[in-house]
Amino acid sequence: MAEITRLIHEYLRHDKKFPHVWCPGCGIGIMLGSLIRAIDKTGYSKDDIVLVSGIGCTGRLPVYVDFNTLHTTHGRALTFATGIKLAKPRLKVIVIMGDGDAVAIGGNHFIHAARRNIDITAIIVNNSVYGMTGGQYSPTTPYGMKSTTTPYSNVEHAFNISELAVTAGAVFVGRGTVFHAKLLDSLMEKAFAKVGFSVVEIISHCHTQFGRLNRMGTAVEMMQWQRDHSVTVEKAAQMKTEELKDKFKIGVLVDRELPAYQDEYEKVRRWAKGTEKR
Amino acid sequence: MKKKVQKKELLLQGNEAVVEGALKAGCNFFAGYPITPATEISEILSVRLPQLDGTFIQMEDEIASLGAVIGASLAGAKAMTATSGPGFSLMQENLGFAVIAEVPCVIVDAMRGGPSTGLPTMPSQGDVMQARWGTHGDHPIIALCPSTIRECYDLTIKAFNYSEKFRIPVVLLIDEVVAHMREKITICEDEDVEIFNRVKPTVPPEWYIPFEDTPKGVPAMANFGDGYRYHVTGLTHDIKGFPTSRPDEIDPFIRRLFRKVSQNFADIQIGEFYQTDDADITIIAYGCVARSARRAAADGRERGLKVGVLKMNTIWPFMRAQVEKVLRTSKVVIVPEMNMGQMSREVKRVNKGDAKVFTINKVDGKIITPQEILSRIKEVY
After folding, report:
1. In the prediction, which pLDDT does A278 show?
2. Which of A61, A86, A90 to probe the B interface (max B CBs under 10 A)?
3. Low-confidence ranges of chain B (pLDDT < 70)
4. Of A16, A67, A79, the CB nearest to B71
5. Which CATH architecture has domain B272-380?
6. Dist. CA A228–CA A214, nearest whole Å
7. In the prediction, which pLDDT does B5 show?
8. Scanning every residue of chain B, which has its alpha carbon at the shortest distance from the alpha carbon of A46?
């Protein structure tokens, strides 16, 4: 059996009626492919993986895959995931969010999950727009771009999700694009292997809304834009600041060691029971 | 040899009794955010839960607190949060999630004066309707209300039992007076307390239908990680848990959510009748006001007035049958409340005219006294 056929049979839900909700050409499909390949490599049983999501196009992902899946309220996926991880630490908890989900309505939960360093992987598909509701601007819509709620041009400045995660305390932060599918595979594998709060930001496109309003062309053209505007971390280190203008870095942005929350809380339990002196 | 009964005599605050009840019920997960007058519950559980291999976590806000509680419950924990009005408002979003996804959990709301920041350290009963209709959409809810420290203990256990039995979030509405007042209670270690745990599926995973429409209305619940992989969503879903927009699947689902509560009124609706059989005047009260009502009734009886009390321990679902009973047998029904008339409106709604219904509404941050109830009785009877 071809590898892809095996993965489809193994991980996509047979009892869920396809087709999915995403537009033809959407980047989420590429991301889903990477996710499945990376999870397959972890060696975890499907019974021990929990996929949690919020609301939006990205939030619809868990329903199609055969894990313990939880589709929560908008922006709150990380809070539910926190409860799951603490109640049953042996479970591998992966959270899938969009940019609005993760850093607008869920921004507070995002920085606090990173600060606590709870052992969860957050995968954020950043397509710079609220796609499902029809193309409104999000916290990652770049300055000067159009959306259905910035019809004259966006005068707000975009969040840099990865830098936010680094500052807030995530122990692993990687950024990729849906153009670089192989890189996505490896970033997710590294994130899943990391104990602590890991983040993978995926630059994607919404040609249906964002691309159309900003005359950025088809899905293919938007992916070519991703190729032309991304620079690997290694290459960026050799480049001058002005050369890096209009470019974003891809690759592993941070990989550091810090004790994860549930291991720290184990200490609290020992202190509470008096089996260890603080 | 006769077994020695372990009796514990404790002088407890309402919030402390809630903690004791929760631990007795098997609570092993708490997520919360500091707020007066519920903070003691967090503080005590932060000491006790890790001693018992449980988990306490202080989240970034009340939205996150209930989110974590629901997540923990899905993974198999018995989970609780505690807050007051402002935090309870923030929880309404995820409360609705717990209703639609049928996740057992307990939410303590120690009521203080409102709206908004209101009166942080003073009591009220202003959240009665927030408990009922605070979250959007048509939904059932169970809300319990203790008036003594012993009831704080017992009703917390019941709250966990109902949430596990009916797969529904249960709100424990305590007011600031009951939360902070101290009374002696006796707890026997070997007390025969019914502890109910969620019914788990016994079928093989491939046969499991997570939201099956059973006669009881409550499907078996598999915990995450138990080998039953299924989908949980806040979207209206079919019996398998997958989102649906088919009217023939939506309607039975919403009706089942209601049915699992409505066909168990006899189990859920708890309260007490005090001398209501011969009463001309019945006081319907709950929370700290029920204490004043008992005293007012006793004082009234001494003065030759036939006064009785219906104490409500279940606030929602509304104790219609019990209220109708006293409306039929009494000439006058008085509903004293520390709000502008949230429960009295329900009482008036079901009154067929046999009794006259009067209210006492106090919203100055003070408890309603027995004297105030007595003078109201004299005024109207």
Report:
1. 85
2. A86
3. 1-5
4. A79
5. 3-Layer(aba) Sandwich (3.40)
6. 17
7. 65
8. B229
- Whether the complex's predicted ipTM surpasses the cut of 0.85: yes
Residues of chain B with CATH 3.40.50.920: 272-380
- Considering only CB atoms, A91 lies closest to which of B53, B224, B227, namely B224
What distances in angstroms separate CA A267 from CA B51, B57, B61, B381, one per listed residue?
Answer: 11, 14, 24, 64
Which is higher by pLDDT, B242 or A278? B242
Could you tell me where in chain B the CATH 3.40.50.970 domains are found? 7-188
Distance CA(A67)–CA(B79), nearest Å, equals 23
> Rounded to an integer, what distance in angstroms lies between the CA atom of residue A147 and that of residue A124?
20
Q: Please tell me chain A's helix, strand, coil percentages from 3-state DSSP, rounded to the nearest 5.
A: 45, 20, 35
Indicate the domain borders of chain A. Answer: 3-273
Q: Region of B21 please: left (phi>0), alpha (psi -120 to 50) or beta.
A: alpha
Please give the single-letter amino acid code of residue B163: S
Q: Give B-chain residues touching A50 at CB under 8 angstroms.
A: 75, 224-225
A189-212 burial code (b ≥16 CB/10 A, e <16): bbbbebebbbbbbbbbbbbbbbbe
Phi, psi of B185 (to 5 degrees): -130, 150
Residue A66, chain B, CB below 8 Å: the answer is yes
Give me the pLDDT at residue B8, please.
85
Closest chain A residue to B224, measured at CA: A68
Q: H or E element: which one contains B18? A: helix B14-25
Separation of alpha carbons A175 and B111, rounded Å: 46
Look up tokens 């313990």; give the residue. Answer: A68
- Binning chain B into helix, strand and coil, the percentages to the nearest 5 are 40, 25, 40
Burial letters B333-344, b for 16+ CB under 10 A, else e: bbbbbbbeebbb
pLDDT tens digits, A245-257: 999 999 999 999 9
CATH number of B7-188: 3.40.50.970
- Give the model's pLDDT for residue A180: 98
Q: Which of B29, B63, B232 sits opposite A87 (nearest CB)?
A: B29
Over residues A213-232, mean pLDDT: 97
Please tell me the least confidently modeled range out of A105-114, A198-207, B162-171, B180-189.
B180-189
How far does B242 lie from chain A, in Å, by closest CA?
7
Name the burial class of residue B304, with classes exposed (0-12), middle (13-18) and buried (19+) by CB atoms within 10 angstroms of its CB: exposed
pLDDT at B1: 52
The CATH code belonging to domain A3-273 is: 3.40.50.970
Separation between Cα atoms, residue B282 and residue B328, nearest integer Å? 11
Q: Label residue A260 by pLDDT band (50, 70, 90).
A: very high
